[in-house]
């Protein structure tokens, strides 16, 4: 254009610069304006050109240069217009200089040199809201209303949306009403923001009313509106409702997008319904949408939480083939999943792979590595990693320190934990309530109560308020040392704090939960008479004091009850588990309570009694105590506990007799009730009766059968050697609404292989493939084991190849099957070759693997090789068990090397 004669007018140059600037080539536009146009004779740049240049500087975060251009602008006789000032205000906001932007805006309103327009209002309001200055945005709104340019829908929408995000929904509703009063049109964005805000607070009726008002106003909801509703339903775990919203969405001609399906998948994964999540994923693909990285991250995370690591890894490896790149979230999720399944070797390989592909680990990645190494007892590696992070200058926060402090406290290395804790202040970090709780818990477990109390005082003095878990920990410490009165002083202190926080709570409610605290915690100590039996681990929720337990002092009668039971312990007699519930009765009758505790507290107390095997005590309590106790309304959960107790005592007939009382209390047996009864019949070797009951339930359709019940009946039949009957029953199950899943098929396949009916098992595998039921590593392991037992090596190898082709990674059980089969065939060297391949694939062998290999060498009389395998096992950090030594001792004895055997003995 510069070569043209005559030169084009400046408007043509401005027109050419516009698209260049929109494409983000700010430096090119600036260079052209400053180095070409301004120096070229015959071209007079105008205000529009200056505005382009100012915008370029602002976009390059060089707003100071933008202000310097104002001098040249005035020099050429131009006056800044609304666009110029608006651009400068936006530049200041982009550089996080919101106060300066507001001052400039206020100055314009005061001096009236430039009349602010709606765009300028929108810019300043948007900037304030984006930097979480919503209150200032509302104040500015009032100032704007006094000017000539009134705020429009966009300005109101921006503020309403920001108020909802800041959890000020009532203020947003007031602005919404104000819009109507002032005749400002409310569009789909306005309604969507408010519906989102109301849903986040669980205000469903108001959200529904808002949606109805929106439709009555003739405003059609868009995909964002429906996504808000789907998201709200999934967060409330109302998946059926979310599916209904999706159906309505499609009926109204609004096409769901990837966000819609991702939200639905996330809801399914959160509830552990992976089959449903995959169905939603497939539906999304069928509708022509392309899943993004978040779609895969959601599924990978879901599988990892369900401990289905092989399925997660299969999706992880599928991403590049789908043209998607892994991100930090993908790798972090997989690393966490591998740690949960104790596959630490695979974690190291994946972490290395992460760096090879150019993804820089973030603080969350290192947090996962630290936490995973500690939980898998690789404490020295975790500490080494921590020191590497320190040397590299990585940002270490209090969470990372807390992970190590908690680990060293559990490992009884209090000196190391103290050193890390004391190091926090020098790093400029303040310990939070969770960090203090971890340290106090470690001190109390070691009996260092005075130090724990001193740390507790320091915690309060530093402004970090103790929570219920802090008090509970110290109280448990006192109780272990039989210092109940000191524990009660702490309870009294707790009450005073709680009364300040919860003045509106009912006194009965406060007393109710207070009585259980000290009593149940004391019971946890006294029932076992062993402090080491206390819970070793602290969950995040525990340390943070997850729920609010409100505490009250115990009455003298209840304290006496505690001391009476304490004397039992001192005399060497252990209190029976029933005393835990007896204390709850004392709580009801002696502690000035107008009402007994709710039934869920009794159910909670009954659970541990059942796990300890005291079925007769729990049954007696329910039948002879709770049923006769006035004011206590049993629920279906209590009845299910009682029925389960009867069944565990091989008295299923009593379990059935309880159904009468259940109906009398107006309850209907659920799937858990019948599953328990079926299991009881199987335990008593009454399999035919169990099958008949199951068939009757299918026929009558009185209750909806679930996969747990299928698994119970199938597992029971297989365990009692009724493999043929279970195959026949499988055909009946398939006629129901809830179809058999992978677990049911795998159980039957495993049993068929054990009964030497491998051909039938292979037919079931083919059937699974035809019905779209995915076999997992357990399925393949069962079949490979069965084939190896028959010496069908080619078929077993082919099965392994098919497994790998399906993206299913072998686990330690797979390697153990091959190693066992080969050693039995006298092929120990070949078995060791298999082991090397397995290790290369990231599968860590266990003690069973090495024991099997040692046994193979011992059977061949190769004791030197057996000892070499033993040493390798120890070098890999595994601890030989009694079977390891038995194998070697037996091998030496067979070789008549009795001295060596006696040495090992």
TrEMBL record:
UniProt keyword list: Repeat
PPR repeat placement:
46-80, 117-151, 152-186, 187-221, 222-256, 257-291, 292-326, 327-361, 362-396, 397-431, 432-466, 467-497, 706-740, 741-775, 776-810, 811-845, 846-880, 881-905
One Pfam family, short name: PPR_1
Q: Which InterPro entries match?
A: Mito_RNA-Proc/Resp (IPR051240), PPR_rpt (IPR002885), TPR-like_helical_dom_sf (IPR011990)
Q: Which domain of life is it from?
A: Eukaryota
Look up keyword Repeat and say if it applies: yes
Tell me, what is one Gene Ontology molecular-function annotation carried by this entry? mRNA binding
Protein's UniProt keywords contain Repeat: yes
**PANTHER family per UniProt:** PENTATRICOPEPTIDE REPEAT-CONTAINING PROTEIN 1, MITOCHONDRIAL, PROTON GRADIENT REGULATION3-LIKE PROTEIN
Q: Family membership, please give it.
A: Belongs to the PPR family. P subfamily.
Descriptive protein name: Pentacotripeptide-repeat region of PRORP domain-containing protein
């Amino acid at each position: 254009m510069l070569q043209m004669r005559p030169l084009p007018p400046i408007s043509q140059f401005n027109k050419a610069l516009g698209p260049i600037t929109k494409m983000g080539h700010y430096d090119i536009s600036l260079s052209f304006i400053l180095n070409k146009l301004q120096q070229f004779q015959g071209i007079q740049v105008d205000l529009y050109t200056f505005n382009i240049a100012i915008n370029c500087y602002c976009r390059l975060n060089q707003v100071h240069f933008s202000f310097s251009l104002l001098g040249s602008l005035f020099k050429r006789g131009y006056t800044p217009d609304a666009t110029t000032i608006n651009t400068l205000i936006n530049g200041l906001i982009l550089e996080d200089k919101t106060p300066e932007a507001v001052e400039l805006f206020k100055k314009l309103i005061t001096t009236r040199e430039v009349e602010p327009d709606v765009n300028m209002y929108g810019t300043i309001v948007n900037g304030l809201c984006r930097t979480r200055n919503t209150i200032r945005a509302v104040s500015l709104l009032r100032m704007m209303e006094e000017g000539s340019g009134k705020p429009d829908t966009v300005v109101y929408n921006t503020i309403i949306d920001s108020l909802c995000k800041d959890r000020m929904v009532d203020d947003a509703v007031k602005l919404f009403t104000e819009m109507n009063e002032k005749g400002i049109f409310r569009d789909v964005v306005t309604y969507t923001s408010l519906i989102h805000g109301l849903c986040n607070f669980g205000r469903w009726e108001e959200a529904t009313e808002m949606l109805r008002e929106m439709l009555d106003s003739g405003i059609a909801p868009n995909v964002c509106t429906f996504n808000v509703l789907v998201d709200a339903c999934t967060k409330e775990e109302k998946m059926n409702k979310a599916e209904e919203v999706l159906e309505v969405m499609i009926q109204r001609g609004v096409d769901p997008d990837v966000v819609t399906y991702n939200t639905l998948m996330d809801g399914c994964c959160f509830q552990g319904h992976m089959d449903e999540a995959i169905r939603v994923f497939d539906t999304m693909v069928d509708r022509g949408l392309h899943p993004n990285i978040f779609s895969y991250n959601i599924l990978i995370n879901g599988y990892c939480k369900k401990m289905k690591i092989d399925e997660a890894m299969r999706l992880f490896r599928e991403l590049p083939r789908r043209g998607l790149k892994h991100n930090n979230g993908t790798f972090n999720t997989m690393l966490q999943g591998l740690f949960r399944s104790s596959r630490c070797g695979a974690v190291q390989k994946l972490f290395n792979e992460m760096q090879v592909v150019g993804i820089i680990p973030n603080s969350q990645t290192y947090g996962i590595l630290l936490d995973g190494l500690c939980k898998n007892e690789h404490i020295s590696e975790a500490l080494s990693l921590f020191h590497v992070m320190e040397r590299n200058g990585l940002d270490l926060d209090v969470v990372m320190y807390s992970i190590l402090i908690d680990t060293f406290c559990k490992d009884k290395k209090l000196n190391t934990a103290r050193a890390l804790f004391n190091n926090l202040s020098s790093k400029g970090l303040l310990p939070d309530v969770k960090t203090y709780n971890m340290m106090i818990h470690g001190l109390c477990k070691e009996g260092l109560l005075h130090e724990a109390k001193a740390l507790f005082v320091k915690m309060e003095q530093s402004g970090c308020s103790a929570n219920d878990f802090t008090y509970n920990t110290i109280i448990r410490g006192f109780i272990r040392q039989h210092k109940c009165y000191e524990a009660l002083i702490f309870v009294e202190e707790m009450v005073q704090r709680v009364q300040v926080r919860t003045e509106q709570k009912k006194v009965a409610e406060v007393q109710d939960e207070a009585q259980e605290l000290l009593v149940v915690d004391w019971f946890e100590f006294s029932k076992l008479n062993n402090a080491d039996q206390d819970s070793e681990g602290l969950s995040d929720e525990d340390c943070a004091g997850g729920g609010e337990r409100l505490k009250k002092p115990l009455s003298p009668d209840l304290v006496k009850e505690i001391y009476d039971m304490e004397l039992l312990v001192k005399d060497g007699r252990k209190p029976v588990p029933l005393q835990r519930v007896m204390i709850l009765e004392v709580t009801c009758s002696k502690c000035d309570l107008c009402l007994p505790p709710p039934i869920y507290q009794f159910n909670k107390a009954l659970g541990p009694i059942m796990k300890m095997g005291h079925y007769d005590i729990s049954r007696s309590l329910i039948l002879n105590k709770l049923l006769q106790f006035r004011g206590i309304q049993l629920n279906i959960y209590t009845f299910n506990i009682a029925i389960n107790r009867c069944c565990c005592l091989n008295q299923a007939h009593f379990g059935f007799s309880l159904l009468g009382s259940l109906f009398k209390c107006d309850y209907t047996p659920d799937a858990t009730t019948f599953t328990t009864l079926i299991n009881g019949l199987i335990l008593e070797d009454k399999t035919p009766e169990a099958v008949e009951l199951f068939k009757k339930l299918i026929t009558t359709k009185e209750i909806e059968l679930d996969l747990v019940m299928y698994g119970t009946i199938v597992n029971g039949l297989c365990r009692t050697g009724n493999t043929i009957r279970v195959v026949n029953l499988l055909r009946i199950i398939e006629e129901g609404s809830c179809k058999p899943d992978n677990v049911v098929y795998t159980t039957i396949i495993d049993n068929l292989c054990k009964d030497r009916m491998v051909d039938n098992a292979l037919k079931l595998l083919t059937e699974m493939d035809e019905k779209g039921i995915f076999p997992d590593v357990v399925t393949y392991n069962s079949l490979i084991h069965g084939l190896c037992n028959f010496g069908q090596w080619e078929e077993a190898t082919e099965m392994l190849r098919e497994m790998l082709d399906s993206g299913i990674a072998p686990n330690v059980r797979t390697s153990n099957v091959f190693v066992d089969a080969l050693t039995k065939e006298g092929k120990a060297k070949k078995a060791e070759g298999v082991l090397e391949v397995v290790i290369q694939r990231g599968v860590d062998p266990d003690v069973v693997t090495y024991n099997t290999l040692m046994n193979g060498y011992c059977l061949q009389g190769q004791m030197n090789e057996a000892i070499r395998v033993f040493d390798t096992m120890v070098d890999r950090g595994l601890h030989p068990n009694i079977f390891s030594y038995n194998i070697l001792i037996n091998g030496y004895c067979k070789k008549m090397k009795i001295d060596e055997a006696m040495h090992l003995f």
